[in-house]
Design a protein that fits this description.
- By secondary structure, the chain is α/β, with parallel strands linked by helices.
- It has two domains: 6-229, Rossmann fold, CATH 3.40.50.300; 245-343, Hypothetical Protein Yjia, Chain: A,domain 2.
- The protein has 13 helices and 13 strands.
- The protein has helices at residues 19-27, 48-51, 69-87, 106-114, 116-119, 136-142, 144-151, 166-179, 196-199, 211-214, 216-229, 258-272, 329-343; strands at residues 6-13, 35-39, 59-61, 94-98, 122-132, 155-159, 185-187, 245-252, 276-283, 292-297, 300-301, 305-306, 318-325.
- The strands form two sheets. It has a seven-stranded parallel sheet with strand order 3-2-4-1-5-6-7, with helices on both faces. Strands 8, 9, 10, 11, 12 and 13 form a six-stranded antiparallel sheet that branches.
- Strand 2 (35-39), helix 2 (48-51) and strand 3 form a beta-alpha-beta unit.
- Helix 6 (136-142) packs across helix 7.
- The relative contact order is 0.14.
- Belongs to the SIMIBI class G3E GTPase family. ZNG1 subfamily.
- GO terms for molecular function: hydrolase activity; nucleotide binding.
- InterPro entries: CobW-likC_sf, CobW-like_C, CobW/HypB/UreG_nucleotide-bd, P-loop_NTPase, Zinc-reg_GTPase_activator.
C-alpha cells in the first residue's frame, strides 16, 4: 500500500442517529479541509446530500439502495474519480463515506479492504458509528444491522444523551462497551464532536475486533462470489429493505402550510412512532423564503431548522422522505393530504 494513500472514514449508525449533523459540524473544521464526501441513502430519492452544507463536486450521492452489491460499483467509480483528481494535483486529504442507516457495514468494509484497484490509492482508516441514546436500546434489540454497525466500529459516538435519563444512558453505554470493548465511546454535545475523533483513529484493524466480527467482511465476500457463481444477481426494490421496511418520497410543487404539516407529523409521531424509522424533509413553507429542514425519528419530532439558502441547482419543491416499518404508504399520504387541506381551509373528504 502506498505511503501517501488517502484515508477513508466510514460514518455509519442507524436511522436518525445524527450522522449528517455530525458531518456538517466536522466539515466546518479547518483540520478537515479537502475532505471528499460520499453519501448513500436508502430509497427512491435522497435528501442528505442536500443537507450537507459544503456541497460541491467532491460531495457525491451514491445511487439509492443499501450499501451491498448494488452500490459497491458506485463506490468503486466514485473513488476512482477521486483518485484521478488527486493524481492530477487536486488536494484530497480524506474521504468520508456516510452510509444509509439501514446498511450492513460488512460489504463496504470488504470492498475497501480487499479491492486491489482501491488499495493503490486508499486505505480504510476508521469506522465511526453513531448511536441514538433515545432509541438505541430498542434499535439494538430489533435491528441486526445496528448491532453490526456498533460491533465493527473503531469509535462509538452516543448522541442525544441530554434527552434521556442518566441511568438509561449509563445502561446503554454499558451495553455498547460489552458489544465492542475495544472502541472508545464518546458523547456528542448538540450533535457535534471535535475533529480528532477522525484524525487520530486509523488505520482500521479487523484483527482487533472479536473473531466473529472480524470474519464478517470475508463471509460477505464469499457469499457474493457464490451468488455470482450460481448466477444469482442482486436485483431488488431499492425502496424496500425487507418485507416490513419500505421507503418513499412525497414531493409538493406548492408551498406547504407549516401548521397543517406540523400538526399531522406530531399526531403521526404520537400514534405510530414505532413505525417511523425516519422522516426527513427539505421544505418550501408558506411565508418562508429559506428552506426548512424537518426530522423525526420514531417518537421524537425535532424542531424544524432553516438552511441559509436553497441548494444550488435544485428546484424549490418540498420533499418528504419516509422510511417506515409496517405502515402502508397510503395511510401516510391520506393523513397528510387531509391535514394540509384543513390548514388551507379546503373541504376535507370523509
Amino acid at each position: 500500500m502506498p505511503a501517501a494513500s488517502i484515508p477513508v472514514t466510514v460514518l455509519t449508525g442507524f436511522l436518525g442517529a445524527g450522522k449528517t449533523t455530525l458531518l456538517n459540524q466536522l466539515l466546518r473544521c479547518p483540520e478537515l479541509r479537502d475532505t471528499a464526501v460520499l453519501i448513500n441513502e436508502f430509497g427512491e430519492e435522497g435528501l442528505d446530500h442536500l443537507l450537507v452544507e459544503r456541497l460541491d463536486e467532491d460531495t457525491v450521492l451514491l445511487n439509492a439502495g443499501c450499501l451491498c452489491c448494488t452500490v459497491r460499483g458506485d463506490i468503486l467509480r466514485a473513488l476512482d474519480g477521486l483518485a484521478a483528481r488527486a493524481a492530477a494535483g487536486r488536494p484530497i486529504r480524506r474521504v468520508v463515506i456516510e452510509t444509509t442507516g439501514l446498511a450492513d457495514p460488512a460489504p463496504i468494509l470488504q470492498t475497501l479492504m480487499a479491492e486491489p484497484r482501491l488499495l493503490r490509492s486508499f486505505r480504510l482508516d476508521c469506522v465511526l458509528t453513531m448511536v441514538d441514546a433515545v432509541n438505541g436500546d430498542a434499535t439494538l434489540d430489533a435491528q441486526p444491522e445496528a448491532v453490526k454497525q456498533a460491533a465493527v466500529a473503531d469509535r462509538l459516538v452516543l448522541t442525544k444523551a441530554d434527552l434521556v435519563a442518566a441511568p438509561a444512558v449509563a445502561a446503554l453505554e454499558a451495553r455498547l462497551r460489552a458489544l465492542n470493548p475495544g472502541a472508545p465511546l464518546h458523547r456528542a454535545v448538540l450533535g457535534g464532536i471535535g475533529p480528532d475523533i477522525l484524525l487520530s483513529a486509523g488505520p482500521y484493524d479487523p484483527a482487533a475486533k472479536a473473531p466473529e466480527v472480524a470474519a464478517w467482511p470475508d463471509a460477505e465476500a464469499w457469499a457474493t462470489a457464490q451468488a455470482h457463481h450460481l448466477g444469482h444477481h442482486h436485483h431488488h426494490d431499492i425502496n424496500r429493505h425487507d418485507a416490513r421496511i419500505q421507503s418513499f418520497c412525497l414531493s409538493f410543487d406548492e408551498p406547504l402550510p407549516l401548521e397543517g404539516l406540523a400538526s399531522w407529523l406530531e399526531m403521526l409521531v404520537a400514534t405510530r412512532g414505532d413505525a417511523l424509522l425516519r422522516v426527513k424533509g427539505l421544505l418550501n413553507l408558506a411565508g418562508e423564503d429559506q428552506p426548512v429542514v424537518l426530522h423525526a425519528v420514531q417518537h421524537v419530532f425535532h424542531l424544524p431548522a432553516r438552511l441559509a439558502a436553497w441548494p444550488a441547482g435544485h428546484d424549490r419543491r418540498s420533499r418528504l422522505v419516509f422510511i417506515l416499518r409496517d405502515l402502508p404508504r397510503q395511510v401516510v399520504e391520506d393523513g397528510l393530504a387531509a391535514f394540509i387541506a384543513a390548514a388551507r381551509g379546503a373541504p376535507v373528504a370523509i
